[in-house]
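call fold(seq) -> tokens
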Amino acid sequence: MLTNLRIQNFALIDSISIDFKAGFTVLTGETGSGKSILLGALNLILGERADYSVIGPNGEKSIVEAEFQLSNFHLNAFFQENDIDDYETTIIRREITSQGRSRAFINDTPIQLAVLKEFAEKLIHIHSQHHTLELKNTNFQIELLDTLADLNSEKNDYFKKFKTWNESSKKLNQLKEELSKAIQVADYNRFQLEELEELSLESKNYEALELELNKSESVDEIKSTLDHIHLAIDGDEGVLSVLNKLKISTDRLKDKDEVINELATRVQSVVIELKDIVAEAEDQKEKIEINPFRINELTAALDKYNRVLKKHGFSTQAQLQEYQQSISNDLASSDELQDEIAQLSIQTEKLALEIGEIANKIHEKRKKAAPSIEESIQLLLADLKMPNTRIQFQLSERKELNANGISDVAILFSPNKGIEPIAIDKAASGGELSRLMLALQNLVSKKKQLPTIIFDEIDTGVSGDVAQKIGNLLRNMGENLQLLAITHLPQVAGKAQNHFKVEKAIVNNLTRTNVRVLSDVERVEEIARLMSGEEINEAALLNAKALMN
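ret:
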């Protein structure tokens, strides 16, 4: 339970420390005294986002610190999971600065806001008039039914599987879209691939083929050049004829002069080389054949190759090969995509069957639990002076699954006998909604076993004997949990075991809010003030004492 709340430099509060006790506690005060400031500070403890405009004038930081006694609440797993020191007395602290920074701590361990929110929801619940309006929200209605029917555990298990199925379905749709796009270009890609495969790019060297064609087309010119080589070297007036004459001349003198001998040797080497050249030219000339069929074959192959090369805007065979591999990979990916879709379809269908079965079971349990829940609510409403009220959880089956299963739930309400129940947002007044919500919170608190509940004017729109009944119910609830209520009704305040008053005062020309615990005498006066206003008479004091007793 909440044992202490410390607030520093927060809105109109300089510094206060409030000690809370078990049981039923009320907070009263004039309109505008600062009760909403206390709720704002507590909302920070609950992990709500910070409003930096609440930082007071005494420094650049606001601090809110709440102390909780956690014995018998079995939160050890949470502390271990988040690596936080586990103490029976646990302190939550929020700090917000004028620079726009916010920090949260549990037992001096810095934590993320989401972790704080998860933790605080296990400790304290603040019910405001806004939450009463939530009673008209369909999601709230089905969550309420599941809580009162003890179905939250099954619902959570269902939601986890539903989330997995939903993600799987989205992925499946995404893959199908990808496949649809792939199929649109697959035929074209196959045509492209077939065209490229016909070129046999892996086994043919088109650069070499082009050289071969060029050679075949120049055969006459090549033969002519070889003949010219032969004549120039070994013809009647060729180089060899001149060199042979020179050789005869040098041979006569080579034994007589070393220089001539060396030159004669070199001339002989040239002669030998030239004869080799003539022999090679003759040999190559004999090998040259004109094959018109080969020329046609090469021309056709190179024409096709160059056409494909130009078509794709490439300049080399390597670029065509890379493009061919890319198309082949795309087609393979399309096949893999079809396999993945087939497998994911089976998985998604299996999940759909599983969650469908779970949703059906939960739906049946909701239908079975609804009548007894309706009876419990109506008994509580009868105690709150609504004896002829009828409340009904109307369940119908959806065609498609959603996060709640296959159930659509609507709370129907009739405050008067003989009138058929209709949708609660069209039937209930503000006062009726408040009493209904109080009855529901009474039942919910027993299911959730929250240590602390805070009601912010749950008694709005009621008075007289109804207010007395509400006070009795709140006191009874306070026997099983710590209950705090902000109220303007003397009938409610009179039933409290503990009483705080929120006051506003001028201090050093500044408006300040303070909270103080009231003594028994001060309680009588405060309850009398709630009944008669600022002019407290003896009758009001006697009535106040009667309410308290």
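The mean pLDDT is 85.
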